[in-house]
Amino acid sequence: MTTPLLECVSLTKRFGDLTAVDSVDLAVYPGQFLGYAGPNGAGKTTTIRMMMGLTRPTEGRVRILGQDPFATPRVRRRVAYLPAELHLDSHLTVAQTLDFWARVRSDVDPAYRDELCQRLALDPSRTTRNLSTGNKRKIGLVGVFMGRPDLLILDEPTSGLDPLLQEEFQTMVNECKFRGQAVLLSSHILSEIEAVADSVAVIRAGQILARGPMSELLQRSDRHVRVRLNAPAVIPQSIKQLPGLQSAELLSSDVIDIVWRGPVKPLLQELVRLPVDSILAPEPNLGEAFMSFYSQGSGAMPAAETA
């Protein structure tokens, strides 16, 4: 079995009586893009700081390429980390900042670094002091991508970027996946995760509510089904008794709105008995899945992580 680039087992962090991260299990494999989704304060950044060896877990363990980042700090060179809040030396130019980071990594291709600056419309001659949040974010993105590390850990990476540059970021991430690099992206912007992630972990109040392949999570989330009938609408008892039914209500005299969880075949088998004019059942997106798992709370059982 493939060894994960990053593995967290029962990772827990407490601050006094507050449990910020509670028994988190995660794994990221070569070529995988894992989206780490949750609102601000859910425990995403605390988890990442433990992954990077910046704070010690109260319980559990972290392994990078099978090694303990606390006992073997050099293994962190295989990882590039972009924090949510990037602090820069205001006396340096963009070029000087990137040169300094390149010397620390010692494996940076200058031509690729310059290409990244051009793609992100970043002027290397400017001093970092008066740069906008978006331009500072660009420096961080060039910094993490330029060394082509085995694993990139990105915390809110596109904060402050305009839509065109967000698309360029997605292209850069897909190039990483093609080269066999892995990416963990922590964000509260669900559309950003959905655009590029192949698997997702959803966290709330320090606990993982759900995790697994993107397609599987979307199928496990609640789905809205709107049924228009050719006759006055009545919700049959046979539908009300179906295990997957979360709610059903009449929107008008001939329209039924259904919230359904799970495979839709049992519902469709009942609907065909009705005088149906049309059925609208769009595929759920990650935002809808996210809200579904949050509404389910601890009842959302995590799916097994796959390589």
From TrEMBL:
<dbReference type="InterPro" id="IPR003439">
    <property type="entry name" value="ABC_transporter-like_ATP-bd"/>
</dbReference>
<dbReference type="GO" id="GO:0005886">
    <property type="term" value="C:plasma membrane"/>
</dbReference>
<dbReference type="Pfam" id="PF00005">
    <property type="entry name" value="ABC_tran"/>
</dbReference>
<comment type="similarity">
    <text>Belongs to the ABC transporter superfamily.</text>
</comment>
<dbReference type="InterPro" id="IPR027417">
    <property type="entry name" value="P-loop_NTPase"/>
</dbReference>
<feature type="domain" description="ABC transporter">
    <location>
        <begin position="6"/>
        <end position="230"/>
    </location>
</feature>
<protein>
    <submittedName>
        <fullName>ABC transporter, ATP-binding protein</fullName>
    </submittedName>
</protein>
<keyword id="KW-0067">ATP-binding</keyword>
<keyword id="KW-0813">Transport</keyword>
<keyword id="KW-0046">Antibiotic resistance</keyword>
<dbReference type="GO" id="GO:0046677">
    <property type="term" value="P:response to antibiotic"/>
</dbReference>
<dbReference type="GO" id="GO:0005524">
    <property type="term" value="F:ATP binding"/>
</dbReference>
<dbReference type="InterPro" id="IPR050763">
    <property type="entry name" value="ABC_transporter_ATP-binding"/>
</dbReference>
<dbReference type="GO" id="GO:0016887">
    <property type="term" value="F:ATP hydrolysis activity"/>
</dbReference>
<keyword id="KW-0547">Nucleotide-binding</keyword>
<dbReference type="InterPro" id="IPR003593">
    <property type="entry name" value="AAA+_ATPase"/>
</dbReference>
